[in-house]
Protein: Flavoredoxin Flr
Amino acid sequence: MKKDLGAKTLVYPTPVLVISTYDKEGNSNAMTAAWGGICCSSPPCVAISLRKATYTYDSLMDRKAFTINIPSEKYIKEADYFGMVSGKKEDKFAKTGLTPIKSEFVDAPFIDQFPINIECKIIQINELGLHTQFIGEVMNVKIDDIVHEGDVNQPIIEQIRPLLFAPDSRNYYGVGEQVAKAFSIGKEIK
Structure:
């Protein structure tokens, strides 16, 4: 039998995304967000949702651009820290030693040490309630050489080692082993 939990945000897993922006003075800032993901294939778009109370919110409204940086397990402390303090009060890059790099495609920095960086221009803003959703068209994706094979420009998840977040327990997890090939295993039912 199933138990009703009421209206909750329990979609598993949620990604650990580090959103980078420039503030009004041109300073690099980053914050961790779990409310985000792919929202369109063509044009390629991603959506992130943030509270108006965040320092990053004003930067998004002002600059109309952001990067999504995918941290590896190696940077779990830094990713957690980015979500714990406000860029209004601390220079998060100076504190963590991570490097913001100016994007060639959008008015936002990306984090050099993270294996995947997604450069986005904001094309739509939706007020949802406590959160505001920012839809960004993907202008470019950068991946480290070590997370793809040869000439294939396809990231390898086992080498990226992205972080996952469980909103109910507030814990981080790593990615487990591959269990099946998508668009293949279901053919066994046909």
